[in-house]
């Protein structure tokens, strides 16, 4: 029997050992530089505080300008002060941010992929100039309002309506599970109109715009989710996103957010695995580290197998996105697999920590709770399963 126990305090060595397939070597120098820069930010600015933020149900809005300086807000967008980085670089950033906490990565996703992405793709030049530079810098915060109390997985049944009144629009209805709205200056709101679904840029201070924070929560506690009510909110014609018509507008943004989740979920899973591995190397029972027992090693190995498979899947999807060949079905496959496996890894990691695993000083239970939300938003397991089922059979099973 050999006894060359790995040092639980040498995280670089542990990560090198867990990269069994050598996936790190598939990344470019620039991609590793982005990853390392974001990882350093997470280590310095998020890890020391995240247990307290989660416990108090606090989102650190003061991080927004720092995330802007880090270059992760609207990361793949070009022009108007946006970073213009590659899809793989953004994916690696999302992974490292979610290794800190899903709530922080969700902020970056709502701000960059959903709100900024909608303005960048569908907005007028005036709208882009007004909002994108400030949002990229974290000086203005945006939200994205699509889901409603009775229209979650089926956005085509939304009831929020915008009617024309002279040269204005008048918005009425309600939205639910809307990230960031209580701290945002702007909401991208999707509504039915006589012309079909359209998008509107709605200042959160507009008369008739009401926000209620959804709490208390057992998941995503270091994040903000809200319910919105629109009581005849009057908007000028310039509030309309001119390029967005129909559900294609919000769906394009959702696919961007789902892409980030493919990578981000791996971060929560990796952090859970690393917490379990370090604990197993330190914790001794029956005269030896619990990492030396067969059942513990099986748990650790199963985690690494899924982490490695998930990383290859995310990288393949990222390369396809950078090449312009990525399809929504491929994103669904990535989101379904990586979040499902991340949930399993976080739960299993908690078991290795034993009773201590319920304390917030250890990350797996926090990640496990957060991932229940990640599993639900931007398409549930069931929705992505049916997207893939339709692709395989040609038959729509949603109804």
Automatic annotation (TrEMBL):
Domain Acyl-CoA dehydrogenase/oxidase C-terminal: 245-392
Gene3D superfamilies: Acyl-CoA dehydrogenase/oxidase, N-terminal domain, Butyryl-CoA Dehydrogenase, subunit A, domain 2, Butyryl-CoA Dehydrogenase, subunit A, domain 3
Family annotation (InterPro entries): Acyl-CoA_DH_CS, Acyl-CoA_Oxase/DH_mid-dom, Acyl-CoA_Oxase/DH_mid-dom_sf, AcylCo_DH-like_C, AcylCo_DH/oxidase_C, AcylCoA_DH/ox_N, AcylCoA_DH/ox_N_sf, AcylCoA_DH/oxidase_NM_dom_sf
Enzyme Commission number(s): 1.3.8.6
Domain Acyl-CoA oxidase/dehydrogenase middle stretches: 143-233
Protein family: Belongs to the acyl-CoA dehydrogenase family.
Protein name: glutaryl-CoA dehydrogenase (ETF)
């Amino acid at each position: 029997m050999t006894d060359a126990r790995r040092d639980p305090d040498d995280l670089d060595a542990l990560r090198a050992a867990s990269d069994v397939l050598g996936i790190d070597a598939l990344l470019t120098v620039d991609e590793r530089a982005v990853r390392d820069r974001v990882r350093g930010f997470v280590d310095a600015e998020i890890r020391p505080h995240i247990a307290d933020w989660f416990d108090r149900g606090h989102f650190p809005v003061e991080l927004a300008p720092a995330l802007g300086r880090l270059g992760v807000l609207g990361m793949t967008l070009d022009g108007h002060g946006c970073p213009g980085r590659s899809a793989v670089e953004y994916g690696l950033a999302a992974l490292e941010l979610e290794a800190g906490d899903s709530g922080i990565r969700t902020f970056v996703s709502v701000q960059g992929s959903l709100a900024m992405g909608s303005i960048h793709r569908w907005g007028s030049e005036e709208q882009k100039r007004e909002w994108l530079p400030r949002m990229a810098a974290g000086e203005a915060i945006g939200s994205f309002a699509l889901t409603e109390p009775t229209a979650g997985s089926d956005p085509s049944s939304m009831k929020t309506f915008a009617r024309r009144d002279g040269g204005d629009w008048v918005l009425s209805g309600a939205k639910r599970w809307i990230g960031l709205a209580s701290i945002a200056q702007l909401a991208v709101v999707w509504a039915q109109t006589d012309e079909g679904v359209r998008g509107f840029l709605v200042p959160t201070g507009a008369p008739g715009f009401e926000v209620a924070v959804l709490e208390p929560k057992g998941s995503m506690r270091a994040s903000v989710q809200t319910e919105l009510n629109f009581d005849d909110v009057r908007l000028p014609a310039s509030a309309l996103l001119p390029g967005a018509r129909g559900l294609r507008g919000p769906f394009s943004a959702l696919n961007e957010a789902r892409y980030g989740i493919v990578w981000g979920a791996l971060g929560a899973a990796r952090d859970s695995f690393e917490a379990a591995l370090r604990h197993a190397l330190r914790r001794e029972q029956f005269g030896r580290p619990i990492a030396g027992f067969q059942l513990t090693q099986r748990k650790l190995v199963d985690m690494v197998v899924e982490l490695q498979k998930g990383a290859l899947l995310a990288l393949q999807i990222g390369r396809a996105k950078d090449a312009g060949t990525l399809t929504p079905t491929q994103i669904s496959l990535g989101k379904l697999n990586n979040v499902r496996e991340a949930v399993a890894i976080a739960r299993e990691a908690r078991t290795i920590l034993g009773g201590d695993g319920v304390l917030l000083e250890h990350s797996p239970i926090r990640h496990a709770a957060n991932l229940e939300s990640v599993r639900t938003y931007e398409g549930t397991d069931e929705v992505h399963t049916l997207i893939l089922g339709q692709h395989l059979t040609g038959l729509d099973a949603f109804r």
